[in-house]
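Final report, results section. Input specification for complex C-07:
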Amino acid sequence: MDDVARHTRLETWFRAYGDRVLAYLLHRTDPETAQDVLQEVFVIAFRKADTVPEPPIGWLFATARRVLANSTRGTRRREQLTVRLADAAQDRPADPDDDVSQAVTDTLARLSSADREVLTLNAWYELSADEAAQALGCSRSAYGVRLHRARRRFAEHLRANGDQDPSELLPEAVNE
Amino acid sequence: MSDEIERRLRAARPHTKADDGWAGSPDGDRTLDAIRRSAKAPRRRSLATVTRLPGRPALLGLGLTAAATVAVTLAVTIPSGSRPGSPVALPPSTTTHPPSGPGIRPSNLALVAYDDCDAALSGLRKHAAAHVSAYQYGGIAYGSREAVPAGAPMDSAQSAAAGSAPDHSTTNVQEAGIDEPDLVETDGKRVVSVSGGVLRVTDVASHEVTGSLDLSMYSGADAAQLLMSGDRVLVLLGGQYSGGYYGGGPMIDSIAPYPQPSTASSGYLLVDLSGSQPSVVSTLHAKGGFVDARMVDGTVRLVVQSAPRIQFPVPGGNASAKEQLARNREAVAHTPLSAWLPSYDVTAHGATTSHTVACRQVSHPANYTGASMLTVYTIDLAGDLKDLEPVSLAADGTTVYASASSLYVASSDGTKTQIHRFDISGAGRPTYLGSGSVPGSMLNSYSMSEYDGSLRAVTTTDQYYAKTGVSSPDAGVSSPNNGRSTSVYVLDAAKLTISGHVGGLGRNEQVHAVRFLGPLAYVVTFESVDPLYVLDLHDPAHPRQTGELVITGYSDYLHQTGPGRLLGVGQDVNSNAIVNGLQVSLFDVSDLSHPRRLDRVVREHTPGEDTLDPHAFLYWPATKTAVVPIHSWDSTQSGAVLVLHVGTDSLRTIGLIRNPAVNSSELGYNTGIERTMMIGESIWTMSSSGLAVSNASTLTRQAWIPFS
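Structure output:
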């Protein structure tokens, strides 16, 4: 692949997916690290443009996760989604849905990081099942199982957390 | 089916700046430009260490102005006649703990400590008020907590293990005898590891996990590290959030519009291994984030950085900047001393006691710009965390380096690096000895070294940053001519004044590796080729560059493998300036003026952007074996390590060791082999999935000890 083609792909990918990758990172680390990791992810995409699968979103997320894991290991800033959630929950202005959102963020914060990852990839960054599986480096069926289990645990925790009407949630999650 | 769960999850998603068409915004354009520049001219975008080369403190989000401006400069308490830039004499209140090492306390430097709490409060308030801005509603944030990877020549066993333990390595450390927190520790008889929030004790002889302790109820357990001495282990948890339950690391900014003052804290567990199962003896929960720690002879010096907790009013709709500033100053004027004084809780024997650092144990550099409080806790691993003998310094800190007798804490504001020195030669409370400053910013703890009464420091100045005060969007992405230049400074350790320096290294290049070996220094810079500089620092007043080797590719890490031999681990770069893969080089540096490369091994198509964490490297002098981690882009595959024999003039590949991949239902990705140790005749490799034991000569697997 020549340089022009690489640059074209880089720009296309960045404009189309940069938002979602950055949002993912901003939810997990400080803005500086997020910016650094984002740049690194797209630099890698540029260099590996001929081997990056289309559409690249799953690959971009997988790479972002990897780079983030490496970048944060040294700095011990790993897995900060919990705190961000806690912050967000604490600081969210009062509104009618406040209690509900609070319970959800509290619950997310209590889940394992693996469960959080599975739940948010889908709900927050709109990755399809195939893309999320690619991002997590697992098969689509394994992703399905993990999502199912994560949803069940989420519902259970939400109930334990005092959700006002868990009955609607639980059977749904379990029977899925 | 799970629509309701989906709906709720979506509703809880915190808004980010990326959500409003960011990729097409001017900010997105700038980022794309930076990516293009970076993609064309490869350089290590080492997130753990170098991307913030200009040293911009990570003062984030809304708290940014606050952090940058609430420099609680305490000049007000400095008596007249003091010289700016050097610590000055103040009342004898802190001289109650004289340094135990003879001649360590410089006679012309005394300490700047507070007489009493009233003096501390008025000084702290006055300077916060003087530096507060009108837009201060974020609470006072603090500088980057980037801890620094450490590691280095570990010669041989130095643990407390009794005679029957086989000869063994520790994981790599920078200075022999100065232990650094790591994911795994061994005394030759057992391997103590922390992975996935579980501490495990593995018996070396039987390859059995004989004890484990689930730490997952503690926040930060995912990122925990260990220090071990005898039957005791200190678990350094990642950061914690004290907002009602434990969270991950402390966050400075927030997604929400009006974050409240940071309640960052960090947790530490003292674990006893003498029983049948590891048990927590006592816990320390400190306000502030963990910076780093060092252990000498079973005594840990723990550095924690806390931010003053000042509650600024939410800006009113119509308030002018002037009014807002007045309100913020008012807020500072009513902030109690407790907002500044570092505090901590200790739980032992079922009872929790709360402590605050005494005013008289709080010092400040004579001339400083820090917004934070650094606290050094002293932990005797044989004890129970009863007396932590904290001392605090009103300063920022990001990089910690220790010799056997001194602890240095450094922080950079992008144009200069402040270095604070503590005497740790006694077993008890450290003594703050003074502070100094050098131009530029540092790569990591390897950028500092104490030798023969001198502190040597390698820093890089960046004119672009100096001019604009911003490195964004070019953080870590240099323009072709960015005015970057690297220097080696030799400071008189007693006074922290500059004795001499060598400048002009690596113009427009970035520092990738620094290694001090005795009176010599080696510095690797890189932009498109790799100069390896050799410096002779024998004469502190006249350090000089003696040699330079220019080759393609670069080294991230340098390790002495024998007299006049240096092993460089880094990346090979092809003629199109594209990273080609892992490269290990053997250099002959016996002739100071003519360093040369004797041999190299390249692994093509391995991830080129990773920074080598020196802890992940191993050199075992007895068999001249070097072990280098290799990552894989395929997240379903576990990474591997490359095992090399380092001859006098050549490198020989022995082979690869690969740990079984993680069951993806647990972690979802594989982190590769994180650490390697040599125990007896075996190489122990640790990944997040478990420990593998391999024959050191044949690399045949002898045991697999899964972590599940």
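The CA atoms of residues 4 and 81 of chain A lie 38 Å apart. Residues 73-83, 86-96, 169-176 of chain A have pLDDT under 50 and may be disordered. This concludes the modelling results for the funded period.
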